[in-house]
Design brief:
heterodimer; A: about 550 residues; alpha+beta; Sulfite Reductase Hemoprotein, domain 2; Sulfite Reductase Hemoprotein, domain 1; Alpha-Beta Plaits; five-stranded antiparallel sheet; 20 strands; globular; B: about 140 residues; alpha/beta; six-stranded mixed sheet; Sulfite reductase (NADPH) hemoprotein beta-component (chain A); NiRdtase/SiRdtase_haem-b_fer (chain A)
């Protein structure tokens, strides 16, 4: 994986001192909270209901054991012994003291980590396929491009005070594991007929209160021109976008208002201009970065056999283990969704166990997923049993990837100052309702996503079953949505009808699932059944 | 027109009042123009030959449209004064300098020591902008 050189280190160290000075000025009263807010947000520091929350960047979801151990140290020293993995492959700490934040950032910098642009109206941490470099179906590893763009977009002077946040994702396979088209700018690496590598570019996606699925604006962009193209998109948006209504400032609104064609025309016009400026990074810099992502030294001649005589292990392998591009290796998913737990939460001790496993069995690599789980990307099949035993001992061996209990949930009203309703208890109640492992397997793939307000951090628009918490005359009310997808068959979930209270929503989810079981054909996923039969049979089951 | 409290140019300040973009395009004798957030700076490009001062308004410091305005003008070859006027915090100055602003008329005064600290904090930059700073990739590859 990528390693900082003295320049990267100098940038991160300078940001720590920058933030230390901003914090000092705030505490001394030289900055008002109004002035400090956008500054701290650009460094991932939110003021939540009970304390400050700090979001630490995990660029494209890749990190190593040394970094994970530091995250564990920080959880103990600055938080309450926990961390929370997010839907942007980052990690959040919920109990941070403002005056300690600069020291925390200084500690992160010692392991080549930071919180730069993890929040605020800036170009956010770039997300990528969590199986990058390991997936059997990828064209190439997308992470060198993600790292190149990380550098290109860090402290970009023109685009550091954007109308709103701007999210980029990069993948290089047909299967979409990164919710690609829900991003402001989505890049899929493809090859053209001449065999050259380039990007398929999508723009204008996003969730929030006005969801849009990104439009394809380019079939093929030569990869070396990506920074010019990205700057063209950003300039069109930055110059046009209104600043008078925060709810209408995301780029998706501009793309929608201008229309796909006109937006594309303006981007292409700016792109031609940017090409003349010579701002693109040269091939030599791509090559330098790509060298860090060279495949690890996989052993050859390994067997693909796995001894599945332990039935619990066999169930875990069946659910959590994915095909790897190298013979004899596998991708092992680690669930952070134990029944009754908080989706994405992990204790400092568990972080250290995962770090140990990564170091010993996965070429020192860990991945965070947008579904709030972890991955050991390069495990020898012969080592899977040992990995599973260690995970089991650490309480990390749940076998529920993409099943009904593998729920994405935002922090909700338990932590978040924007939320209208709690998300975590709903996720816990649904998971408890469907705790039986046999029942989960019988239901099959079913992605539930829960947001505690219309900002949609819990991706409810992309949920096969989505739940949106709202405030209805002072009480929490939950709307049910069906039919969303964050995969390559991207779709937006639709609302079923009137909302429910806390108990009612769990019952409604169960009635939805039971109706699916009645309607499905052999091997048909929930989403496919819904698409085949439509909303009505489900409404009938839900509302009677 | 706001007087520049901070100026990074050696020539004499322009004394002429800045007029709106529409007025500037009409009044062929004008040489100072004010561009508001929301104005399209590309309208000025055909008239750059007679521009001596561009004042760019920042109604709220979070409104970053003016950053693009300055860059568009620099990229069009304009080398006269570009002044940022309005709600300007010391934390913006570094990015503004990189985008091509070379004078500042902030509503609330900025401490010179704070400005110097902000401008010297980052030794390197990752990308090209309007200030001629050499990006890190170029330092890496010579």
């Amino acid at each position: 994986m990528y390693e900082y050189d003295r320049y990267d280190q100098a940038m991160v160290d300078a940001r720590v001192e920058d933030f230390r000075d901003q914090t000092r000025r705030r505490i001394a009263g030289e900055l008002t909270e109004d002035q400090f807010k956008p500054l701290r947000l650009k460094n991932g520091l939110y003021l939540q209901l009970h304390a400050y929350m700090l979001r630490v960047a995990i660029p494209y979801g890749t990190f190593n054991s040394r970094q994970m151990r530091k995250l564990a140290d920080i959880a103990r020293k600055y938080d309450r012994g926990y961390g929370h993995f997010t839907t942007r492959q980052n990690i959040q700490y919920n109990w941070i003291k403002l005056e300690e934040a600069p020291d925390l950032l200084a500690e992160l910098a010692t392991v080549e980590m930071h919180a730069i642009q993890t929040s605020g109206e800036s170009i956010r941490n770039i997300s990528a396929d969590q199986y990058a470099g390991a997936a059997a179906d990828e064209i190439c590893d997308p992470r060198p491009w993600a790292e190149l763009l990380r550098q290109a977009t860090t402290f970009h002077p023109e685009f550091s005070y954007l109308p709103r946040k701007f999210k980029i994702a990069v993948i290089s396979s047909k299967e979409d594991r990164a919710a690609l088209r829900w991003h402001d700018c989505a890049l899929r690496i493809v090859r053209n007929e001449a065999g050259e590598e380039g990007f398929e570019v999508y723009a204008g996606g996003g969730m929030g209160r006005t969801p849009f699925i990104a439009y394809k604006i380019r079939d093929f962009l030569p990869s070396g021109q990506i920074f010019s193209y990205l700057q063209a998109i950003l300039r069109v948006w930055n110059m046009h976008a209104r600043r008078d209504n925060i709810h209408k400032q995301r780029m998706k609104i501009l793309v929608h208002d201008l229309g796909e064609e006109e937006f594309r025309r303006q981007v292409e016009e700016q792109f031609e201009h940017f090409l003349t400026l010579g701002t693109d990074f040269p091939q030599a810099e791509y090559d330098r970065i790509a060298a860090f992502f060279a495949p690890p030294p996989f052993e050859t001649g390994l067997s693909d056999d796995i001894d599945l005589s332990d039935p619990d292990f066999a169930l875990w392998v069946d659910r959590q283990v994915i095909a790897h591009k190298a013979p004899g290796y596998a991708i092992a998913n680690i669930s952070l969704k134990p029944v009754g737990g908080i989706p994405g939460d992990i204790s400092a001790e568990q972080m250290e166990r995962v770090a140990d496993l990564a170091e010993r069995y996965s070429f020192d690599e860990i991945r965070a997923t947008h579904a709030q789980n972890l991955v050991l990307p390069h495990v020898r099949k012969a080592d899977l049993y040992a990995v599973w035993q260690a995970l089991d001992a650490a309480g990390l061996a749940d076998a529920n990837l993409d099943l009904v209990t593998d729920i994405i949930a935002c922090p909700g009203l338990d932590y978040c100052s924007l939320a209208n309703a709690r998300s975590i208890p709903i996720a816990q109640k649904i998971a408890q309702r469907f705790a039986d492992a046999e029942r989960q397997r019988d239901i099959g793939e079913l992605k539930i996503k829960i947001s505690g307000c219309i900002n949609a951090c819990g991706h409810h628009h992309a949920g096969q079953i989505g739940i949106l918490g709202v405030d209805r005359k002072g009480t929490e009310n939950y709307q049910l949505l069906l039919g969303g997808s964050g995969a390559e068959d991207t779709s937006q979930a639709k609302i079923t009808g009137p909302g429910f209270d806390e108990e009612g929503i769990v019952d409604a989810v169960e009635r939805t699932i039971e109706r699916y079981r009645e309607l499905r054909t052999d091997g048909e996923r929930f989403l496919d059944t819904y698409r085949r039969v439509g909303m009505d049979p489900f409404k009938e089951a839900i509302y009677g | 027109m706001a007087e520049a409290a901070l100026r990074f140019r050696n020539d004499d300040p322009v004394e002429e009042p800045a007029v709106t973009l529409d007025a500037f395009i009409e009044q062929t004798s004008a040489s100072a123009v004010r561009i508001e957030a929301g104005d399209d700076p590309r309208r000025l490009i055909p008239h750059l030959g007679r521009v001596k001062l561009v004042e760019v308004g920042f109604p709220r410091f979070r409104d970053g449209r003016g950053f693009s305005t300055a860059r568009v003008l620099r990229e069009a070859g304009y080398d006269g004064e570009i002044r940022a006027e309005g709600d300007i915090l010391v934390d913006l100055i570094f990015f503004m300098r990189r985008c091509g602003f070379d004078s500042f008329a902030p509503q609330a005064p900025l401490g010179r020591a704070d400005v110097d600290a902000a401008l010297s904090r980052y030794d390197y930059v990752y990308q090209h902008a309007a200030d001629g700073a050499v990006p890190i990739w170029k330092l890496r590859h010579g």
